[in-house]
Write a structure and sequence with these properties.
With 487 residues, the chain is an alpha+beta fold. Helix content is 42%, strand content 16%. The chain is built from twelve helices and eleven strands. Strands 1, 2, 3, 4, 5, 6, 7, 8, 9, 10 and 11 form an eleven-stranded mixed β-sheet that branches. A hairpin with a 5-residue loop joins strand 3 and strand 4. The longest helix is centred in the C-terminal third of the chain and has 49 residues.
Amino acid sequence: GNRGLANMGHRKKRRTHVKGDERPGETKGQHPKSIVMRRGRLGGLLTELEKDLRKVMEPNTAAALKESKRNTLKDFVHVAGPLGVTHFLILSATQQQSYLRIATVPRGPTLTLGIKEYTLSGDIAATARNYSAPPSIFKTPPLVVLNNFVGEKHLRLAAVVCQNMFPSINVKAVKLATCKRVVLLDYDSETGVIHFRHFHITAQPAGVSKRIHRLAVRGSTPNMSGFNDIADYLAGGASDSEGEDTAAKVVLPQDIGRANTASTQSSLKLRELGPRLELELVKLEEGVCMGQVLYHKYVEKSADEIAATQTKREKSETEKEARVARRATQEAKVEAKAKAKEEARQAERKRQGCRDITAKHRGQHAEDGNDDDTKESEDGEGEYEDDEEKDEDSDTEWYRQEVGEEPDENFKKNVKARKAKQELHAQLKAEKKLQKEKDQLAGKPSSDVSERSQGKSSVSKKRKNKYDEPDTENKKPKAEKRKPAFT
């Protein structure tokens, strides 16, 4: 009793979360993934056909893909590798016919199938009597059945391409409960048409009436208004289930659902889901929508034409490789040039480190120079020497922060030269100031005043410009020239 109370509230885990790559019955390795897209302008019906094909390829397809007009086939090929996409299903249309291309990524081949006739899933659902497409059946990939793809080489290659679009299964380890759908591809050798069908696999116990199946399997509540008791209801539907025959009855090796248990006889049914396609193999190419044409239904070429086409293709590929190599060489040269330029700039920066001082650093040295002039006149040269040592230390520290290395000999020589220049400038300024004070004490005009006066006199003595107005007041009139007298 205590154990039962202790276990109350603890849910027993019954579900097993198995990853898609480890489902029992499937072979190890990467599962094929596909992208269903359209190229060019399509009508509304072909757009609906694109959605139906995505339903067929679920769950290993891009169900919510939204392609743009700007997206090219190269864009899809580039993203196919990182996403693990192995097949493209491309819908296109011309004025004469609609086409479905099945391409194996990234190296081909590509099947071009002409769509002769097609029926959408919605049309099949509208005309079917008991149409059923529960969402749970699209969580597992469908089985694929190929029929009559024998004989010519292009048919066998087309069969391999279609078979590889769906994941392979291990018959001995597969779970029958995961087999919910089947895709049928049948080739008609007389007409050359491939019939494409998509079915839902259903199973129900054999020898069970409809009313018992409805009551036991579906769990629906019967309408008892016209019966006295449940025995009358069950007796009224004593006929066998619809569609049962000897070929449809099988003994199940595993449990399928609640009513279909192992070692019991069940009746299997196929309910069409759609879409329904009538396809015609038109062309078979070597690459992804390009390359050498291996088969064409309407065009036949001679051996010389095939050789000329092959030579032209090889020449184009050689030119393309040459362009790629030339582009790579140019990019390498540009990168090397940029690297050499950066190294030269770093070397120049190291060689002329003191010239690369920031504006703030320069302003600080200028203020220090003005302070040094006043300090020399008042306190002497001792403090100036201390400031010089501080400036040299600050320059060295700045060099370490900017360059990340210790300053070299060139940098130290430049700093010393700049310091000597500043010291000479300050000394000349101090001597000039001292001479000015002496002249003022002696009553003589200062050297600056004398220089200014001399400058003014020199300006006044200069010859006037030829464009100045003439001085008519002080200028004497010229004597008139006498004309010679003629006798």
